[in-house]
Write the structure tokens for this entry.
Amino acid sequence: MPRRLAALPLLLLSTLLGAAQPDTPLAITVPAGARQVFQGLGVSTFNNGAYTVLAPERRALLARLIYRDLRLTTLRIWWAVETFAPERGQALLAESFADRYVKSGLIAEARAHGMKTILLGPEKPARWMLTKPEDGNSLIKDEEVGTYVAQIAILIQRLRDEHHTVIDATGIGNEPPWFTPAQMATAVRLLRGELDQRGLQAVKIVAHEGSNNDATGLGYLDALIADPLALAGLTGFATHSYNMAARAEEAERVQRTGKEFWITESGGGIGLPETEQPVDAPQAASAASRFLNDMNHRATHWIWFLGAMDLTNGWPEEHDNVQRLIEFRDKPGADWYLPLLKYYYLKRLAQTFDVGCSFRAAHSSLEGDMTWTYGRKPQVTAAAALNLDGTWGIGAVNYTSNLFTRAGQDEFNRTNTGQAATDFRVTITIAELAAVGDQTFTLQRTSATHRDVDEGEMVMHDGVLAFDLAPLELVTLRQVRR
């Protein structure tokens, strides 16, 4: 069993996380009409070596916790393109890449646990491709865009031919400082051609994988839309979900084009604290809120940054857990690994919203479409979907806390976290259940002091039910099949 930290005194927890005050009423409405189909959660990995040298039983346990229990469908693997062609004319496979992901058995293990998609995350063009070789973040030369994407296609082909390893999807560049919007459209168009001529028509392309959903990001999406060949070659728009997650502006473009919408990276939120502790309700509530936000804005895939990562030698630095879901040390004893609190929040969401479910829109009486973007974050974010088995799933997170209003924060944290602790009485109305009689749901509650507590069944009358939602708490409801 993982080690457990001593619980904080309940009085201290109530002071930090909540406030003893009357519940504030909040109405969530879910109008009729299916939107996007959810294709599942994912994680990315660097595999620095610590994971793949674990004893088989330990590796099997972590694989079960991450892949199976989170119901993942996508594994994102990283590749620095500059290692492939450090000099013009080279096309090295870079054995370190094959060692980390193929020979280690990492990809085979992921496939065995149900990963349907291996997503390649290219980054870092060779310096000789850049307008300012001395500046690794300068723009790529126009004449080298084709060279760059050809290297991506060659790698995928060589993995198939030399290592019998299939890459299902690829990006162009992670949070790319190297491409203008026009160059990104050119890159997608040229990469589609490079893949197709190598018999890799099944490989999907997602772009642009920007760090923020803002005006700059929209420039990339609009450039892709404006180029008919680039748009035709693109499977899905791709962005990241951090301080500025998906919004109506991105959702409108997804709807208009009919493309998928991949969140290829979500990670630790605004620091509270910057170095995450094992029981960290602000980080857990942030992760869950952004997932629900992105589902409300038509995301089809949602990938967390790092899954299980070595605490001592891994990246990020020791004790910087904001990007990990599970920390571990390869040491004797039963306390060698520890799932962080946000792991439990995401696990509960994965058990509420099945792969293949169809999300609906959701609107709040307090904050409209509950958009997670620059500035103060929504107090409550909620979403609802119809699962393939005919049951409805509902999730809601209260992202308020007295931690957010304490003195001594820097300006950015003061203006980009949540609001003061508030207890809510949430009433949710699902239009499609208004005329089907009483329906039974099971309520699960997850917080700093509770792990997935089953509070039993409750009845929805005429499509309406109500529940209490405390600060930094996740509540999920799943309809009971009769």
